[in-house]
């Protein structure tokens, strides 16, 4: 019998294409095509094809043709739609054709216009099927990239569908066929199966979605952690219709989260042991301050800080020393206004009532909503502060020891004429002048008057010497005792004169001191510590001078105000400082002097004092010409 296979292939447009078929976007070849040739054509197609078989004869031959055609087209990316026409009206024959692989069977041969309308509808249906297929392919590709699989279960037909990625997630062979839920359950870790069953049962009872994590047993050993979501769908009568959901491989994420949790535990332990508190606070435009994060650690005085997390901490009373609060407020406001690093030190009272020193540091960051984010650290520096005070006190005592010989000489001079004049007065009072039995009464007035004048001059000189000694002793005691903790209004010129008086004997025998003081308003600072800095700088300048050039050696002590800053300069015209020594000037225990002249702590202490005041100290030096040490402090 003569069987003609006509193929309608969207990617091909031969010359025999009918105009009205062409409008559908399909092509139609009229040539006879063998099954193996048609299969080769279909393998390169990018859209589904309609294969039209027109034949007259027994159905058995057509079924054989379909049977030989199907294996050839089974491997095609898009299987064709097979339409058989003109095979008679026998119901059994039509059924046999459907069983052999035909998609549609028409008992009669249709004319071209009728065939066109029929195939046009089929083409539209195939194009929709093609788009669905494309979406499905893209979905499977996306699921593969995201390690996500989807599944579906029909409660009415008991039909189950698993996307290809589900098999990959469960470490199963896709060729094993459709899985049942019991089979899936058997691949779960034994410790997770009961939780999975209960989650599904609860979801059905409550008609709510479920979500949980479980482990899958891998064929090669080990497990893989899976996240699963399921969502049931019900009809209007509350009857369960279907269940659908997704599974995702979260093993890598879970491992990362586990690592982060372990690190958080370790960091939490470390932060608890450190004498420091880490914090993050947010300052809003209305000046309310919320504590967002804090690890108190072992910082004393902030034990209750963790209780304020998430609250506006401006409403709580801090254990900060009252005297330190105004300065602390000014420093934070200045840092917030300039968005510069905040560094300050203050005192708190711990739970035992003891005073602790705290060093704070933070960098304010402006956020888009207008708030300011502060991330910083609070460090307990009590022991360091005490040690620093001890070092400063040791340096003061060392300086006093260095000045001892000069001070002894300075005190000895007024003491000599003090004692001499007092002795003169005593001897005068015991002389014959005041013995009435040995002199005439007429001479008493003139003699006593003269003696009294001499004694008055002697007592005046003695009083002046005593005042000189008193000033020296007062300066020495002021310098020797520890400085007060709090700042106070200081007169910088008075402090400079006091330092110069204390070192008068040391400087006078080596150089000439010139004081150039501008009018400086009083400002809040630590006068005792400033005096210690000046004494160190002046003493260093004096000791740097050669002793055989007193007339040529000069030291200048200057104070001035420039743009809100106090400038203190100690300049000398000594030998200067070598470059290799300049780099180490502020190191503790470094000195170019002999052991008897210094400990090497002076400049180290000076730098720490000025740094604690928020200032800085600079050095300019030229070998053979001299050196200038410059202290810069902000007045406010």
Give short descriptive properties of this protein.
single chain; 636 residues; 5-stranded antiparallel beta sheet; 21 strands; 23% strand; disordered N terminus
Q: List the strand order in the largest sheet.
A: 6-5-9-8-7
Query: How does the overall form come out from the CA principal axes?
Result: rod-shaped
- Please tally the helical runs, counting DSSP H or I stretches of 4 or more residues: 17
Radius of gyration: 51 Å
| Helix and strand composition category | alpha+beta
How many strands in all?
Answer: 21
Distance between the termini: 113 Å
As a percent range, the share of helical residues equals: 40-55%
What would you say this structure looks like, in words?
- 23% of the residues are buried.
- The protein is 43% helix and 23% strand.
- The protein has 17 helices and 21 strands.
- The chain is rod-shaped, with a radius of gyration of 51 Å.
- Strand 18 (554-562) and strand 19 form a beta hairpin.
- The chain has helices spanning 19-22, 35-42, 59-73, 91-100, 112-146, 164-169, 181-186, 190-206, 251-273, 325-338, 382-429, 441-480, 492-502, 504-508, 527-543, 579-582, 602-612, and strands at residues 3-8, 50-55, 81-85, 104-106, 148-154, 160-162, 210-217, 223-234, 240-249, 276-283, 289-295, 342-349, 355-366, 372-380, 488-490, 512-517, 523-525, 554-562, 565-572, 616-622, 626-634.
């Amino acid at each position: 019998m003569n069987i003609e296979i006509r193929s309608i292939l969207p990617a091909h447009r031969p010359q025999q294409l009918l105009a009205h078929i062409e409008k559908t976007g399909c092509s139609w070849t009229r040539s006879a095509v063998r099954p193996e040739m048609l299969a080769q054509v279909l393998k390169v197609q990018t859209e589904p094809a309609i294969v039209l078989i027109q034949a007259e004869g027994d159905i058995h031959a057509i079924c054989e043709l379909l049977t030989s055609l199907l294996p050839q087209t089974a491997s095609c990316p898009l299987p064709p739609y097979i339409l058989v026409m003109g095979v008679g009206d026998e119901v059994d024959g039509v059924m046999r054709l459907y069983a052999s692989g035909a998609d549609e069977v028409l008992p009669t041969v249709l004319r071209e216009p009728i065939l066109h309308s029929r195939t046009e509808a089929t083409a539209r249906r195939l194009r929709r099927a093609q788009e669905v297929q494309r979406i499905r392919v893209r979905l499977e590709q996306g699921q593969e990239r995201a390690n996500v699989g989807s599944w579906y279960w029909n409660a009415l037909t008991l039909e189950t569908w698993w996307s290809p990625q589900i098999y990959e997630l469960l470490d199963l062979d896709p060729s094993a066929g459709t899985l049942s839920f019991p089979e899936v359950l058997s691949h779960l870790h034994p410790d997770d199966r009961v939780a999975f069953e209960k989650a599904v049962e609860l979801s059905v009872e409550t008609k709510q979605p479920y979500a949980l994590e479980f482990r899958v047993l891998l064929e090669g050993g080990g497990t893989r952690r899976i996240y699963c979501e399921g969502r049931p769908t019900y009809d209007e009568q509350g009857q369960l219709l279907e269940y659908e959901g997704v599974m995702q491989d979260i093993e890598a994420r879970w491992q990362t989260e586990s690592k982060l949790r372990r690190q958080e535990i370790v960091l939490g332990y470390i932060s608890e042991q450190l004498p420091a508190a880490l914090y993050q606070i947010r300052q809003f435009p209305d000046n309310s301050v919320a504590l967002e994060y804090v690890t108190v650690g072992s910082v004393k005085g902030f034990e209750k800080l963790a209780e304020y997390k998430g609250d506006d901490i401006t409403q709580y009373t801090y254990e900060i020393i009252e005297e330190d609060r105004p300065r602390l407020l000014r420093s934070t406001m200045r840092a917030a206004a300039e968005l510069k690093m905040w560094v300050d030190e203050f005192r708190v009272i711990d739970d035992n009532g003891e005073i602790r020193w705290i060093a704070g540091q933070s960098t304010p960051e402006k956020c888009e909503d207008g708030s300011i984010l502060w991330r910083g650290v609070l460090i307990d520096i009590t022991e360091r502060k005490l040690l620093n005070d001890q070092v400063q006190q040791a340096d003061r005592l060392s300086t006093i020891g260095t000045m001892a010989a000069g001070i002894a000489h300075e005190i000895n001079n007024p003491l000599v004429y003090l004692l001499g004049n007092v002795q003169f007065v005593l001897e005068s009072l015991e002389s014959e002048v005041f013995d009435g039995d040995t002199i005439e009464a007429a001479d008493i007035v003139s003699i006593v008057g003269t003696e009294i004048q001499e004694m008055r001059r002697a007592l005046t000189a003695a009083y002046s010497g005593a005042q000189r000694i008193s000033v020296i002793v007062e300066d020495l005691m002021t310098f020797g005792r520890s400085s007060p903790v709090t700042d106070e209004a200081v007169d910088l010129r008075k402090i400079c004169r006091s330092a110069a008086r204390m070192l008068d004997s040391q400087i006078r025998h080596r150089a000439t001191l010139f004081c150039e003081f501008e009018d400086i308003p009083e400002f809040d600072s630590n006068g005792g510590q400033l005096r210690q800095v000046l004494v160190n700088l002046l003493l260093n300048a004096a000791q740097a001078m050669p002793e055989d050039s007193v007339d040529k050696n000069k030291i200048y002590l200057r104070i001035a105000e420039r743009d809100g800053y106090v400038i203190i300069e100690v300049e000398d015209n000594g030998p200067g400082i070598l470059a290799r020594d300049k780099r180490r000037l502020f190191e503790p225990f470094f000195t170019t002097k002999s052991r008897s002249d210094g400990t090497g702590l002076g400049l180290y202490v000076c730098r720490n004092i000025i740094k604690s005041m928020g200032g800085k100290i600079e050095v300019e030096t030229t070998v053979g010409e001299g050196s200038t040490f410059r202290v810069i402090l902000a007045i406010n």
